[in-house]
From TrEMBL:
It comes from Arenimonas oryziterrae DSM 21050 = YC6267. PANTHER family: AGMATINE DEIMINASE-RELATED. The keyword Membrane does not apply. The lineage of its organism: Bacteria, Pseudomonadati, Pseudomonadota, Gammaproteobacteria, Lysobacterales. Pfam families: PAD_porph. Keywords: Hydrolase. It comes from the Bacteria. This is Agmatine deiminase.
Length: 343
């Protein structure tokens, strides 16, 4: 019996996580050493459990990254480096969205526009094609789709239900109706239900409200979401409205979702600019959940909430205060690759 393609959930078995190392030619230049510390901690955490596929700009950057990682005790045998040009390091949005198709894989290569043309993205939009053409992936096909969509803008439960924010998709495609976009996404991603959030945003986020900064599936019957318990905060009303929307959603079986509210970190400012410190921007790998930590008292409470939502996973904090300076966090710089995909 033939199986139709399926969009796997993030908690399903993985072969590797794909990242791109920051360098002086990216927007990280002014705080490169600080952000490299986050990348070292991230690679160390992932490589204890699975491989890491690391894009680097050239041989010199590879040698530099290897030196930092080796000094931190990382097993370099768990790492694979690929040299290619890139504009920046947000692989969640420029990397492949991979479907399982029986014993094969279908790598969807959506058009990456740097969040609606906000930045240069010509090199990043070629990353998937370049890696694919080098033969890195086995039992896989690549499908180029001329539609602006970022991986951070969608979330699946692995069972045909998609979660997204209308703000983001409408901004990318203002001429299209909700019905049209729903139909296109469900066709490409092989989903049969879409849950749209009309509320929720974070100051300092330039993705137009990516779902991975706001709400994430924790199994087929549960959702973890970013809350705000400070009535004096500018996010209070909007995130409260989002929580109300989530409470009204129903599972495939018609039941309310079990909801887990993440705590609210105190405002983090950079030269007066509010930064988007979301605990929802976590990454799941084999056997563990890597949680963005911001050096705030709420870090401990966030870890406790995530441990309750994902009792089978080890919760591993990764320092991410450096990342939010450039408007993203842990999930934004990574893309998981399903088990069996990496050659």
């Amino acid at each position: 019996m033939n199986q139709s393609p399926r969009f796997p959930a993030e908690w399903e078995p993985q072969s590797a996580v794909l990242i791109a190392w920051p360098h002086a030619g990216t927007d990280w230049a002014d705080r490169l050493a600080e952000v490299e510390g986050t990348y070292v901690a991230l690679v160390a955490a992932i490589s204890r459990r699975q491989a890491v596929l690391i894009c680097v700009a050239d041989a010199a950057l590879q040698d530099h990254a290897c030196g930092l990682l080796s000094a931190a005790g990382v097993d370099l045998a768990r790492l694979r480096f690929e040299r290619l040009p890139y504009d920046d390091t947000w692989l969640r949005d420029s990397g492949p969205i991979t479907l399982r198709d029986g014993g094969r894989y279908r790598m969807l290569d959506f058009h990456f526009t740097a969040w609606g043309g906000k930045f240069e993205a010509g090199l990043d939009d070629q990353i998937v094609a370049t890696l694919f053409e080098r033969g890195l992936f086995q039992h896989a096909s690549r499908e180029r789709i001329d539609f602006a969509l970022e991986g951070g803008g969608i979330e699946t439960d692995g069972n045909g239900t998609l979660l997204s924010t209308w703000t983001c998709l409408h901004e990318r495609h203002p001429e299209a109706s909700r019905e049209q976009i729903t139909r296109q996404l469900q066709t490409w991603l092989h989903q049969d239900r879409t849950l749209w959030l009309d509320h929720g945003y974070l100051e300092g986020d330039d993705t137009d409200a990516h779902i991975d900064t706001l709400a994430r599936f924790a199994g087929r019957d549960a959702i973890v979401y970013q809350g705000c318990d400070d009535p004096g905060d500018t996010h209070y009303a909007e995130l409260g409205a989002m929580a109300t929307e989530l409470a009204a959603f129903r599972t495939r079986d018609g039941q309310p979702y079990r909801l887990f509210e993440l705590p609210w970190a105190q405002p983090i400012l950079d030269e007066g600019r509010r930064l988007a410190a979301s605990y929802a921007n976590f990454l799941i790998i084999n056997g563990a959940l890597l949680m963005p930590a911001y050096g705030d008292a709420a870090d401990v409470r966030a870890a406790a909430v995530l441990a309750e939502a994902f009792p089978a996973l080890e919760i591993v904090p990764v320092p991410c205060r450096a990342l939010i300076w450039q408007n993203g966090s842990l999930h934004c710089i990574t893309m998981q690759l399903p088990e069996g995909l990496l050659a």
